[in-house]
User: Fold this.
Amino acid sequence: MGVGSSDMPPDPPEPYFSKSWRNVTENYPRDLDFVKSYQPQNKDVKHLRILLHGPVGSGKSSFINSVETVLKGRVTCRASTDANSGSSFTQKYTAYKIRKDPDSFYSVIFNDIMGSEQNTKTGVDVEEVKLAMRGHVSDGYKFNPVAQLQETDRDYKSSPTLEDRVHVLVCVIPAGSVSLISKEVVKKLRKVRKAAAEMGIPQLAILTKVDEACPEAENDINETYRIKYLKEQVDQFSMLLGISSNCIFLVKNYHSETNTNDDINVLILSALKQMICFGEDFLNNL
Assistant:
């Protein structure tokens, strides 16, 4: 067998686009200022409420911690996480406010919810997600997958205010798990998405753990929006759930870091700013 060029293995495909398909770096200082100074224009609410939902282990609680880390300028971990849990570690409907100073909070509230699971008897029930979006679920309510919250229960809010309602719905999925999501979980996520659409609630998605999804992002997180594999995951998830690709953001949550990193912050702030903009539009259109 010869050793000519025809016998040589082909070069591996280039993993990067020639330029970023979404430019987020140059907006970093403005995005940070925007988030820190944001106040809802609608006088009926003091806080914009963002509900995070998605499969077990997708990084919902970690994203809340990461946002708080960015705003406080130091690593925090107030929302409990568990990398070893095979089921949802979040058991209660929990609202997280981020303190700005001793006397005030930032104008965004994150609600963490039990993760969706393949089994119909485990994970959060779709009907309870709907109740949460309408504002009927009290902070601290403990989810029970086999016993849905009833109007007669203590944790049921019979007359929710606009402040109690969800203003933005965000689906959270690990970037490397898009092709692994079961049909059952996809069905649940789409039911939630349809319900939110009927309520007029804007929707976005974040693909987390980009550094675990591919070695290029792990090597240089600043190249996230140049990596072809990650763009493919965005497009695939867009087709899977029906969310437009320009409403899907790539994120690396703070996990092993002990100090803040501007390249990580850039990705988090880009997603957060769009959540706020969509929520503000929702409140202003009421």
About this structure: Residues 84-89 have pLDDT under 50 and may be disordered.
